[in-house]
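Hi R.,

Quick one: here's the Glycosyltransferase, GT2 family sequence you asked about.
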Amino acid sequence: MFTIIIPTHDRPLLLKRTLESLIAQTCQDFKIVVVSDTPGYLPPYQELSQLDKRFDYVLRSTGVPGPAASRNLGLAIADAEYILFLDDDDTYRPDHLEKLKARLLKDKPELLFHDFQIQNEDRTVYPPTLLPGGQKVSIADVTSDSVYVRNRIPNSCVAYRRDVLQGVRNETDLIIYEDWDFLLAAMHGRKLVHFATDGVVIHKSAATAPENMRRGNSRDDKIVEVMLQLYRKHPAPNMETRKTRQALMASAGVVLDIANF
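And here's the predicted structure, written out as tokens:
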């Protein structure tokens, strides 16, 4: 049913936690592809062995560092009906895949997105210390048009039917928002369907923590630049969405030519 692609970069203990959440799933109808862009530590053999040979662990030695190229390599291997992405520091609640499978089997949607939970934590110790401020997040109000303006759907909260991703790949040159670019490319001519479940847990540490720097979490200086790049690459589907883009950019002090975006 699922291929779960997990890019990882020098975070073996957090990766172990992610794999443990997969081992605990009440639905085991999945394979995983773990793609590491650093060879500095041994694979988590103990956890992988519990997945009964339903995994590929790949050391990527070519291409630029970062999750985009690793996700692309995972896509080249993936062969299940639905493709999921999961970061190496995030987890699933034990019944997440069971609920997701039951929903997908109803009508086989091309693109299904769902809600999630946020758990703040201190990663200076292991296991990480849980911090206050966790929350359940509903994104039921997200529409296809709104995704063309800004993206509120985490990468780990989309189930892609594999045929939708023919020719769609992650842009490795983007510093931020490569997951938004990927989603927009997959959406062309397709409908987004919402599912009210929140079995994905997104674990957050401070944005300026060392483990986040490679992901561009603190690159606020690039936000407008990259958004404009994506606006050009993925033209708005209608005039109302163009006006919404224009208004958002105006709030950042940028004058947008509505005819070109």
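Residues 212-216 have pLDDT under 50 and may be disordered.

Cheers,
M.
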